[in-house]
Design goal:
eight-stranded mixed β-sheet, 15 strands, 359 residues, oxidoreductase, Rossmann fold, transit peptide
């Protein structure tokens, strides 16, 4: 269980840690109970930072943190499930209070859920944070073509019931947390956090991506060779999360860097209609693909498909590439996991996959 609270009005930072957070407290091996918390020594007049344990009771702890966040709107309260799957024991807190609390009681809440999520061969109980459930409860209209005003991004955030993101870079993670506390209103924030990206050599950001003048990018467009000559691009793959790194590796191995563009959605809900529209128009002759590592009846596809069709006014299909429908979130067999991965990567970069098909 991992929870942290950052209070701005009365500074305090509270952190319940597990897994890769254990380096937050240094223990003296020679002096009993002599510890050092480096985060308490970053700069003068900083918020105090305290580390402690919490019980492994998702229902009880998430209920407490939700109440803390509601009573303390100037606090940045983060709760992390041990694995994303484990939030299901706190489902009533999510359904009854988080997704609909503002609509029912006109109470804002800025709690942040950090849900480890990713198809990493860990089996059905340690793979999926069930993004499809959160997206199903999102209140943005898939069929309404929005008006892109100057303050469209902020208006979307103000009108939504919560924000759902899957950050693929450290900069995105930094900026979405920073945005969460700087917004002039409060909305619950759901962050899917793949464990494998903690140490992935490609999942890195320059400090230039986090300096003054930068902000959270709801969508990260293709910035490689394909973006330089969009008329030559045969296929645009939209995706979110860690599958991006598997896609770029496969694209390079097949020498398709000039013919396949790969675009990441960092924010899934509210859906970035304006940015996706611009990307589709840039690659006007290319096939549109949604690629996800989750099974077809899970993940993001059922949420994004009608929104893509609204953007293109049902004139072009958005083809699905990913795992087949299934009852369990993931296979418990590592070999089967790798076979499924190989199958959808082959489909993603076979430019003849959907020739002759209609939608």
């Amino acid at each position: 269980m991992f929870t942290c609270e950052l209070m701005l009005a009365h500074p305090h930072f509270l952190n319940y840690l597990s897994f890769s957070h254990r380096h937050h407290v240094l223990h003296d091996q020679d002096v009993d109970r002599h510890t050092c918390v480096p985060m308490n020594h970053l700069w003068p007049n900083q918020a105090p930072y305290t580390v402690c344990n919490s019980s492994l009771s998702e229902y009880g702890v998430l209920g407490f943190e939700l109440g803390f966040a509601m009573a303390s709107p100037n606090a940045l309260v983060l709760w992390e499930a041990q694995f994303g799957d484990f939030h299901n024991t706190a489902q009533c807190i999510i359904d009854q209070f988080m997704s609909s609390g503002q609509a029912k009681w006109v109470r804002h809440n800025g709690i942040v859920l950090l849900l480890p999520h990713g198809m990493e061969g860990m089996g059905p109980e340690h793979s999926s944070a069930r993004p499809e459930r959160f997206l199903q409860m999102s209140n943005d209209d898939s069929d309404a073509y929005p008006e892109f005003t100057q303050d469209y991004e902020v208006c979307q955030l103000y009108e939504c019931n919560w924000i759902v993101v899957n950050c693929s870079t450290p900069a995105s993670y930094f900026h979405v947390l920073r945005r969460q506390i700087l917004l002039p209103f409060r909305k619950p924030l759901i962050i899917f956090t793949p464990k494998s990206l903690l140490r992935h050599p490609e999942a890195k950001s320059s400090f230039d991506d986090m300096k003054t003048g930068t902000n959270f990018r709801r969508m990260i467009p293709e910035n490689g060779p394909a973006s330089q000559n969009p008329q030559e691009v045969k296929r645009v793959i939209f995706c979110t999360g860690k599958v991006y790194y598997e896609l770029i590796k496969e694209r390079h191995s097949k020498d398709l860097d000039n013919h396949v563009a790969i675009t990441r959605l960092e924010q899934i809900s509210p859906f970035p209609f304006d940015l996706v529209k611009a990307e589709i128009e840039k690659y006007s002759k290319a096939e549109l693909i949604w690629c996800q590592e989750e099974h077809k009846n899970m993940g993001y596809y059922d949420y994004i498909k009608p929104r893509f069709l609204t953007i293109v006014k049902h004139s072009r299909p958005i083809w699905y590439v990913g795992r087949d429908p299934a009852a369990a979130p993931a296979t418990g067999n590592k070999n089967t996991h790798l076979v499924e991965l190989r199958r959808f990567l082959d489909t993603a970069f076979c430019l003849q996959s959907f020739q002759g098909k209609t939608f």
